[in-house]
């Protein structure tokens, strides 16, 4: 079903992608690229999580890629759609239904608390919607959001949710243009790895 949805979005969404740009269901071979895009989108928060799970010699990206290669779970490749150009994965949508907020494990970094607390149960939660900077401005995020909306409706969900950083004015403006509204927010703690400052904002839009 996902492949059919993506084909419809690519051909009939009204968001024209450049010739040679392909949007498709993710594959396990995209795992490392998806993990790297998560790291970029999270402004370092993913590194804080994955570094604690890393074994000797592993990087945070390695841990993320291992999670993506799993066939089930929120991070599974089956929940991701990628855009490829010049033989590279340059953009990703990674989304799964949101559940109730999970409590922060006692041993986890308190700086991650805002990311744990902000949730919209019953929505399709977009864990990552990211494009490498060199490939921005060509409609990839808009096309991927159309995929997210179709996927949400197919799963019986009536809204999308995403976490955005207040300091990223361009992304906030883009999401608002796509119908997202801020419904909750938390202040970020200063952290040596997490680059974002200000608030992390929970934004919700109709599917």
Structural features:
207 residues; alpha+beta; Aminopeptidase; seven-stranded mixed beta sheet; 7 helices; globular; disordered N terminus
* Span between termini: 17 Å
Low-confidence stretches: 1-14
Query: Which CATH class is shown?
Result: Alpha Beta
Name the strands of the widest sheet in spatial order.
1-2-3-4-5-7-6
**What is the CATH superfamily classification?**
Gcn5-related N-acetyltransferase (GNAT)
- Helix fraction by DSSP (H/I, runs of at least 4): 25-40%
The CATH architecture would be: 3-Layer(aba) Sandwich
Helices, by number, come to 7
**Global morphology:** globular
**What profile does the largest beta sheet have?**
7 strands, mixed
Radius of gyration, whole Å: 16 Å
Strand coverage percent:
15-25%
CATH fold field value: Aminopeptidase
Account of the 3D structure:
- This protein has one domain (2-206): Gcn5-related N-acetyltransferase (GNAT) (Aminopeptidase), CATH 3.40.630.
- Helix 3 (45-53) packs across helix 4 (60-68).
- The chain is globular and about 45 Å long.
- Residues 1-14 have low confidence and may be disordered.
- It is built from seven helices and seven strands; from the N terminus they run H-E-H-H-H-E-E-H-E-H-E-H-E-E.
- The chain starts with a helix and ends with a strand.
- A seven-stranded mixed beta sheet has the order 1-2-3-4-5-7-6, with helices on both faces.
- The chain is of the alpha+beta class and 207 residues long.
- 37% of the residues are buried.
């Amino acid at each position: 079903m996902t492949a059919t949805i993506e084909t419809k979005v690519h051909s009939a969404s009204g968001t024209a992608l450049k010739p040679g740009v392909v949007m498709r269901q993710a594959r396990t071979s995209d795992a490392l690229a998806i993990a790297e895009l998560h790291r970029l989108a999270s402004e370092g928060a993913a590194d804080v999580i994955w570094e604690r799970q890393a074994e000797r010699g592993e990087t945070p990206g390695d841990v993320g890629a291992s999670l993506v290669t799993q066939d089930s779970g929120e991070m599974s490749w089956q929940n991701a759609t990628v855009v490829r150009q010049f033989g590279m994965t340059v953009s990703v949508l990674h989304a799964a239904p949101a559940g109730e907020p999970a409590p922060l494990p006692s041993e986890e970094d308190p700086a991650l608390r805002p990311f744990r607390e902000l949730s919209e149960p019953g929505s399709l939660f977009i864990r990552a919607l990211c494009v490498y900077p060199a490939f921005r401005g060509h409609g990839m995020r808009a096309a991927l959001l159309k995929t997210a909306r179709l996927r949400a409706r197919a799963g019986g969900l009536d809204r999308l949710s995403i976490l955005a950083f207040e300091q990223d004015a361009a992304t906030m403006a883009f999401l608002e243009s796509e119908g997202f509204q801020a419904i909750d927010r938390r202040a970020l703690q200063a952290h040596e790895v997490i680059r974002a400052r200000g608030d992390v904002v929970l934004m919700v839009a109709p599917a």
